[in-house]
Specification:
Elements lengths: L1 E9 L12 E7 L12 E5 L8 E6 L16 E6 L2 E4 L2 E5 H4 L1
C-alpha cells in the first residue's frame, strides 16, 4: 500500500458495466511530509468514502481487486483506508484533525 492525498474527482457517464456506481478519485502520492513524490497522478476507485484533501491508503495492481466486490472490476488502484494519524519514532507526522 501507498500513502496518497485525494486532490480531485473523476466523473465518467459511460463506464464498463462492472464500474457502474463506483466513485473515482484523483490522487497524488505523498511522502511523510505531504510532499509529492512523483509528477504523476493516479485514479483510484474509492471503496471507503474518502474526500478531497484526505490522506488515504491505496492498494495497487492485483491487490486492488482483492477488495470484496471488486474481483472482476478492471481496476489498478483502490482506496482502502482513510488515514487518521501517522506516527514515526514516537512523534506524530500526520494527523487528520490538524488538516481540517
Amino acid at each position: 500500500m501507498q500513502i496518497a492525498k485525494v486532490i480531485g474527482t473523476v466523473v465518467g457517464n459511460q463506464k464498463e458495466p462492472s464500474l457502474r456506481g463506483s466513485k473515482f478519485l484523483l490522487l497524488r502520492f505523498v511522502d511523510e511530509h505531504g510532499e509529492d513524490i512523483s509528477n504523476e497522478y493516479e485514479v483510484a476507485i474509492d471503496v471507503v468514502g474518502a474526500g478531497i484533501g484526505e490522506w488515504v491508503l491505496v492498494s495497487r495492481g492485483s491487490a486492488a481487486r482483492q477488495v470484496e466486490g471488486s474481483e472482476k472490476r478492471p481496476s489498478d488502484a483502490a482506496i482502502v483506508a482513510i488515514i487518521d494519524t501517522i506516527n514515526l519514532e514516537n512523534r506524530t507526522i500526520y494527523s487528520k484533525k490538524d488538516h481540517y
